[in-house]
Structure formats: structure tokens, C-alpha cells
Amino acid sequence: MKKTSKILLSEKEMPRQWYNIMADMPNKPMPPLHPATREPIGPEALAAVFPMELIKQEVSTERYIDIPDEVIDLYKMYRPAPLFRAINMEKAIGTKSRIYYKYEGGNYSGSHKANTAIAQAYYNKQEGIKRITTETGAGQWGSALSWACHHFGIELLVFMVKVSYHQKPGRKLLMNSYNARVVPSPSTMTESGRRILEKDPDSPGSLGIAISEAMEIAVQDPYTKYSLGSVLNHVILHQTIIGQEALLQMEKADDYPDVVIGCFGGGSNFSGIAFPFLREKLANGKNIRLVAVEPASCPKLTKGKFMYDFGDSAGMTPLLPMYTLGHNFIPEKIHAGGLRYHGAGVLVSQLLKDGFIEAKAKMQRECFEGGVLFARTEGILPAPESTYAIAGALDEARKADIEGVSKTILFNLSGHGHFDISAYEKYFEGNLPDHEMTATEVDAAIANSEI
Amino acid sequence: MKKTSKILLSEKEMPRQWYNIMADMPNKPMPPLHPATREPIGPEALAAVFPMELIKQEVSTERYIDIPDEVIDLYKMYRPAPLFRAINMEKAIGTKSRIYYKYEGGNYSGSHKANTAIAQAYYNKQEGIKRITTETGAGQWGSALSWACHHFGIELLVFMVKVSYHQKPGRKLLMNSYNARVVPSPSTMTESGRRILEKDPDSPGSLGIAISEAMEIAVQDPYTKYSLGSVLNHVILHQTIIGQEALLQMEKADDYPDVVIGCFGGGSNFSGIAFPFLREKLANGKNIRLVAVEPASCPKLTKGKFMYDFGDSAGMTPLLPMYTLGHNFIPEKIHAGGLRYHGAGVLVSQLLKDGFIEAKAKMQRECFEGGVLFARTEGILPAPESTYAIAGALDEARKADIEGVSKTILFNLSGHGHFDISAYEKYFEGNLPDHEMTATEVDAAIANSEI
Fold first, then answer.
1. Which terminus of chain B, N or C, has less C-beta within 10 A?
2. CB atoms < 10 A from the CB of A336, how many?
């Protein structure tokens, strides 16, 4: 093992292709179904919503897909992203294991979301799109897409969940700084928004409602498309640049992970780091564990049901085969806003079902405890989402120490927490609630979301 | 010129020495004077406040000073720092000039302050110091020193100007996350604080008061020292790593700056980038301009008086020969908190007096306009302080275009603005006041600060 704590790649070493795990999956995912007819749908059904190139990627079974030169050039603003060995944190907990992390917060958006925002804005621009609509919760995805759209001269309209819009003014202002228009959702701009507001003028909004609003605007105009920041296959494809780089960096460190860990919301940052390593397991027989860490208050992977469900509350999206808590489920208001989503992406769901990846659930307070330890030792204040990956890594190190073995642990530090500092304030004040969803609550949530 | 927009150095290429401009100054600065006797003082007079190694650096005339291995190792967490060519911003303004920037915000503190915080904490630790006190305004310095002290097992007590403590909770919480104790100043912990509070229980505090409080605590205990984040020679020495790297990076870019620009508060980030280039001018006859950009509301360099003055309001520091607006001057509450200081460091003051560097003053709104342009094109939301350097660079590019020439412009982007987003909100709302200090106001301020 090298002694250095930072493992860099040169720009020349940056991978030029995304990796598509569909090519190596023993069982391919079941097809999406039409929301009304319940019949399998083809790619053409998505043409009103996404540009063709992204639809092609959504259904592609090619193992590798070339990253366009213009996207590579923009990736070079902040990529290759560094991989660090957490030497100071290892010392602090006195572990015999080696803990590495890939840091994806060192870019204009502060999270891994930039990797797909740049690609999506690029493909939309190529197809002459003038305007994009999207939704955002905590705002990481919204900020990522804001700069990318501005760069390509595309207007961006962001529906931001109303409760976040008021609680997280920093992220909203960052989107404004990048020239996006941000509207609190539910809004009066759309039929879906107005319908909600008629029933409940004080509705705090939800990701599901915001998705419906954004899609409603997009389908009305051929030069407007909709963009999603997680869950879908093409989004996950773009994030594999993370794991593709990490593979090379682990090689440079002369080490190899026994376990790769990511926090889990819709699946994009976990899949981004894990899938290239999973390829080594599926295609080359490498012995490696992949662990997704989700909130105990939103446990779709560990307690949810594998079934066809909608991606949004209003039922406008195709039905997808996924682990879900039901599309009507409203998760507790934990600070990891990016992990508050009812379902898991199709690829991760199938791979979990087939036993190729693992999942575990963690409580919020323990994750923040890990986050503060990490900040004090490694000098990066993690996003609340990323603290779940940290807590997962600490679990693995402690388990190995109890077993008297030394493991190599790699996790994805998906973003920084500069705009989430009030969550840390609550933690320090002892005002951070813990909530674990019970099996009964899960059953009730799923029963409440019949399709 | 290379086509790439990012110019990196490998860890091996990172300079191993700081540069001390004292060695190359044609006129050395006049000596500091004892605050009471007005006689020149020697280094021993500072022994109650600073560790010996820093005092030696404060008065050293050696051209180069080795960076200790342990400091190098910590620098490697985030150094070498990247140098970018601002290709997108160049395009946006249609200039024929090439604009480069060195980015110092990509570390745990979010600004260049980490470069000296790590060094100062290290030297204090070497001399057995258990506790450090300091002051902070906007909080960049306080956050930088917090992590560094925690890393070396030193307790840190930060006196934070009360108005900032309440207005900028993000920075205060970042310091807490890094395990520092933060006290709003004036406080009841010190004689100086209590004296102020007796007169005015609602005092908003000032940097001068906070310095007095921090120094008062430090001198009471031999294991407690005081630490300052700008102005002094040893602080500026540590920051020269910025310019030392930038010199190598400009060489890699196959280009050379006609002008080097930094924003100006006490002088540490400007000097950090400018002094290594100034060495090339003083020692090797290179034709290059060095421009410090200060706020029009705190114009010590462009309108202040060169004279002996105190570093703090209470008159506890030695008297230093500097450009100043008077130590009792309270600047307007502009958002660039780091530039709200009445005086300029001794080295910069002498060099400005001797005509080796230039200074200019800018208004707040124009700087934010430049900051937003920069964020939208280059993808980094700049600290309010750094927007002054951006505005200075834009001035140079526009001037060159009017003259029909192409210049190479380099500026220091000293930090990011993630914790200053409310300042951008005010800018977007049109609520950012402009203030230019008149010659009469300057005269009055200086008259109000007789020594």
C-alpha cells in the first residue's frame, strides 16, 4: 500500500466511457408498463419527456457508452475527482482496516449530481431543446442542473418542494446564482399544483407533486423536456464515472476494496461507485461486497416490497419494477433530503433481489455522529446524505476489528454539507430525532399506494 | 499557450519553501515600536503572545524558509491548488485577453486561510502550547484555525465579532463542527470585553475589540498563545505557497502574467499570490504589475495615511508603520467581512509606498456583479472578498480590449461563498448598498485615532 492519503488521476487517465451494468446482469429487469394499459412500453413512449439519446441510453444493453468530448471537457473542470485514504479517521477510531473515500463534492454543485446534469444538458442541447423542467428536494440536483443548463444556453425551471424552498434558502439562492428560475411546489403554474392547493392551500409539497408539475409543463411544448436526477438507468449510467475512476485509483494505491459503500436515495451515487466494482464481481469473479445504506425512516431496500410502482405520487410516470414503500409514502423530514424517496431504481432493485448487493438501514443521529467525526479528522463537512455512507464504513471497520481482521473499505462521499449547516446545529443541540419505520408502518404505507 | 482550462501540479512539484520578500525589498520596513515607550522593540517583546519559531519568521531576512514535513503532509490534503484559465468568462465578455485564476477555496476552511492556520498550529504544538485564542470577523480565519488546532490537539477559543456571530451562523457552526469554542465578542470573559459592555450592553463588537479579548486571555497563561490570520509578516510568508505554485503553473501553461491581482483586507491573500511574482520583478527585472483591490468603503491603500498605528482598537499591539484609516475606524458593514480592517500589513505598506505595487478601490455592487458572472461561467460561487479580485481582473481585460491589446491576467480566487449566500440574496433583491469613503471622512477617521 502507498503511504499517501490522496490518490489522484491525471486528466489523461480519466475514463472516456460510462459503464452500463445492464450488459452484465444475469437477470435483466422486467419492462416498464404503461400507467393506464399496464402493457409493456417501448422507448418511444418516453419521447415527449426525454431527448432521444437519453432514451437510447435508458434501454441500452451495450457494456460501454462513449462520453461525448464536450462532456469530457466539462468533466475536466473538476474531474478526475480525488480518492482519499481516511488516515486521520482510521487513527481516531483505532482500526486495523484501511478506509478510502471517493470525494464527489468538489465541483460547482457540491455533489455527484453534476456528473449527470452536464450530460443531460448536453444531450438536450444537441437535440435543440430550449427549456428544461425539473424538481428538486434538498436542492443538490437543482443546483447541478442550473449551472449545466446555463452553460448550454438552456432555460431551467425548477419546482422545489415548498418546505425545502423555505427551509433551505441557501440552495435556492445557489440555483438563482446559476440563473435558474425556482418555484415553490405546489404552485399555481400547473393543473397538478392548483389541484393540490385547492384541497390544501398550506400544502408543504412533496417530491412526487413536484415531479408531476415539472412533467406537466414539459409535455406541453416540443422544445421543453423534463430531467430527473436519480433512479433512471441513464442517470445511473452517467454516475459510473465515479466507480470507473475509483477502480484506477485503488489500483494506484496498490489496494483493493473488500467492500464498497454508498448512501441510498434513488440509487445514483451508490450505483455510480458500486457498479464498476460489481462488474468485476459479475464478469471477473472478484470477491467483493457492495453495500447500500438507507435511512431507517425510509427503508425501501431493507423493508420495502419488490413490485411495480409509480415514480411519482400522481401516477404520471410508467410503472417500474422496484423495491418501494408505495408512491404515496411521505417519509419523515430527516435532513438527508436526497434519501427521502419512496422507491429504488430498477437496476439496483433487480440486483438486490438477485443477491448481488446488500442493503442496511441506519438512524439519523448515529450518521451525524459519524459525520462530525469525519469533519474533525478528514476536514470535509459531509452532506447529511453522505453521513450514511460514513456510518456504514465505520460499521464495517468496527466489525472487522471485533473479528480481528483488517479490511479495505471504500465509500462514496457524495457531497459537502455547506448548505446543510443548520442540520448540524440541530445535532449539536441534541434536537435531531431518530425514527425507525416498523414493519406495520411499511405494510400500511404500501397498502395506501395501490396501483 | 496550452488549450486546457485547468493547470495542475503533482504533489512532487509542490514547492517545499515559503518565500520571504524581506530579502529582496530595496527599503526594509521601519521597526515596530513599543505601544507605551514608542521605542523600537525586538522579537523578545512578542514572546508572551507568539511561539518563538513564528517570531523568528516575523523578523527573518532569509529569502526562503523550509516548510516543515508535517505541514507539507497537511498541505497535501488540498495542495497543490489548481490554477484555471477562465475560458468561459473570457468568452462571456468577449475579451482578447487571457484570464487565469488560482483557486484557494478547495480546502476544509473554504479559503486561503488554511495555509497559515496549519503552519501556526504546527509551530504552537512544537513548543508545547495547549491552547490558542484568536478573533474572527466573517469566520474564514476562525474555521481555518479550528480544524488545524483540533488536528494538533490544541484547544481553540475564538472571539467572533458579535454582529457576525448572529448574522453568519453558518461559519460559527462550521467552527463548532471542527470542535472550537466560539464566543461572541464583546464578552464577559475578559476585562476588555466587560469594559465595553458596561458602556454599551448592545455593542455589536469589532475586530479590534475581539483582538483585545483574545490577546488578554493569551498573555495570562504560558501554555496559551494568540494567533492572527493576516497582516503580520509570518502570516504572509505562509501564504506565499500560493504564488510559488502559481509561478510553476503559469510556466506549465506556457504563459506569463502581465498583471497579478488580489483582493485586499490585511494583505495575506494578495501578498500570497503577488510576492513570488514581485520577486521576479525585484530580483530578475521581470516587467509585471501587482494590483491590490480594496473596498471603496475601506480604502486604506488608496486614501489612507502611511504612519505608525496600532493593529487593534484598544492599542495593545506594537505600533506598526502602515497605510491606515486609524485604529478606531469602524468600516461600513459590507459583506466582504475579511476586507473590513483599518490597516495594511507592514510589508505591503512599504512596497506600495516605494511604488512596487498598485492599489485600487471598488464598489460592492460592481464586485457582486462580477461575482455572479464568474459563478455562471466558471462554476464557483466566490466569497464576497474574492469578488473584488474578479472585478479587478475584469477591469484589466476591458481596459486591454479598449487599447486593442491582449494581456495575460492572473488573480487569486481566495475562497468560496457557500456561507455568504445571503449576501447574494441581497444583491439579487437590489438591496446591496454602495459606499465610497470621501477624503474628508478619511481625514476625520484618522484624526479620531491619534496614537
1. N
2. 26
pLDDT, tens digit, for every residue of A209-220? 899 999 999 999
Substitution target from B4, B77, B85, B252 for chain A, most A beta carbons within 10 A: B77
B174 to chain A: which residues are within 8 Å by CB? 381, 421
The closest CB to that of A176, out of B178, B379, B428, belongs to B428
Segment A399-414 mean pLDDT: 98
pLDDT at position A451: 81
Which grid coordinates are listed for B301?
491603500
- Respond yes or no on whether ipTM tops 0.90: yes
Q: Residues of B with CB below 8 A from A425's CB? A: 169, 173
Tell me if B346 sits within 8 A of B270, measured CB to CB: no
- Strands (DSSP E) contained in A75-202 are 83-85, 98-103, 131-136, 155-161, 181-185
Residue A295 and residue A263 in contact, taking contact as beta carbons nearer than 8 Å: no
Instruction: Determine whether the interchain pair A424/B176 forms a contact, defined as Cβ–Cβ distance below 8 Å.
Output: yes
Nearest chain B residue to A377, by CA = B151
pLDDT on residue B4: 66
Note if the bond before B186 is cis, omega within 30 degrees: yes
pLDDT digits (tens, 9 = 90+) for B149-177: 999 999 999 999 998 898 788 999 999 99
Residue type, B76: K
Look at residue A68 and give its three-state secondary structure. Answer: coil
Average pLDDT of the residues of chain B: 95
Of B315, B310, B309, the C-alpha closest to B192 is B315
Contact yes or no for B261/B389 (Cβ under 8 A): yes
Burial letters B129-163, b for 16+ CB under 10 A, else e = bebbbbbbbbbbbbbbbbbbbbbbebbbbbbbbbb
**Domains of chain A by range and CATH?**
6-14+68-110+233-447 (3.40.50.1100)
Render B339-369 in DSSP notation, one character per residue. G--SB--HHHHHHHHTTSSEEEEE-HHHHHH
Q: Which of A107, A173, A424 sits opposite B421 (nearest CB)?
A: A173
By Cβ distance, the residue of A5, A106, A428 closest to B106 is A106
Per residue in A240-258, pLDDT (tens digit) is: 999 999 999 999 999 999 9
Which pLDDT belongs to residue A331? 84
B67 class by beta-carbon count within 10 Å (0-12 exposed, 13-18 middle, 19+ buried): buried
pTM of the model: 0.95
CA–CA distances in Å: residue B172 to residues A278, B141, B157, B176, B419:
42, 11, 12, 6, 10
Contacts of B14 in chain A (CB under 8 A): none
3-class SS of residue A238 = helix
Please name the amino acid found at residue B34. H
Interface residue ranges in chain A relative to chain B, Cβ cutoff 8 Å: 4-6, 8, 10-11, 76-77, 88, 106-108, 110, 147, 150-151, 169-170, 173-174, 176-179, 372, 375-376, 379-381, 416, 418-419, 421-422, 424-425, 428
Higher pLDDT: B361 or A45? It is: B361
At residue A206, the pLDDT reads 81
Q: Which residue has the higher pLDDT, B4 or B362?
A: B362
pLDDT of residue B1: 46
- What is the rounded CA–CA span in Å between residue B398 and residue B401? 5
Amino acid letter at B154? I
B353 in Cβ contact with B150 (< 8 Å): no
**Distance from C-alpha of B303 to C-alpha of B359, rounded to nearest angstrom:** 10
Grid coordinates in use for B396? 484589466
